[in-house]
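To whoever is on call:

I kicked off a structure prediction for a single chain this morning and the downstream step that reads the tokens threw a length-mismatch warning. I double-checked the sequence; it's 203 residues and nothing unusual in it as far as I can see. Pasting both halves so you can look.
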Amino acid sequence: ILYVGTDSSVTTANGIKVETKEDVCAFLMVSKEYGLNPLLREIHAFPKKGGGIQTVVGIDGWAKIITNHKDFDGCQFEYEVDEKGFPVATTCILYRKNCSHPVSITEYYVECKRESQPWKDMPRRMLRHKSLMQCGRIAFGISGIMDEDEARDLKEVQATTVPASESLLTPGTHRKPGRPKKTVEAPAQAAPAWAYFLTRRPG
């Protein structure tokens, strides 16, 4: 949920300040595209590393998207447990009206588990949610949204400068075995336009 203050500032329900109008527009566009209602917590904002928000869809939102799809024709689940009854894997089998074969996706507990309280209290339910979301995503080609676990795992890629290996000689540098490295200055040349993006640091 987004709250607009008297000074036109925008914050999420969990107190995250939205810095740009683009974040708000992106959130509202995704809500409209999939017919999700933020007031019912079908979709909400999640803090993104480096600032801003990431649009996250809860299980109610995923279930709504999948079951409201025009080709949805039902689904069922199969469960695999160990000798103590603890969940090992859950398979979601989803049927499409326009396909002769169902889509079947298996999610494994060891790959999906998190240290959050819901995973500790309700591992079977959480694993079922995972299998439904992933199966629906593949069966109907759902893209551009993620669940809360995926949002937490998301890491921003930052540009880094990689030092050249000594085995790779730069232009104007010559080296002979057994002798000190000698550098010959090359004529000054204008750097190509794309070189700016290789040396530019974030911020």
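Update from on-call: the warning came from a stale cache, not from the record. Cleared it. Sanity check on the structure: Confidence is low (pLDDT under 50) at residues 156-170, 191-203.
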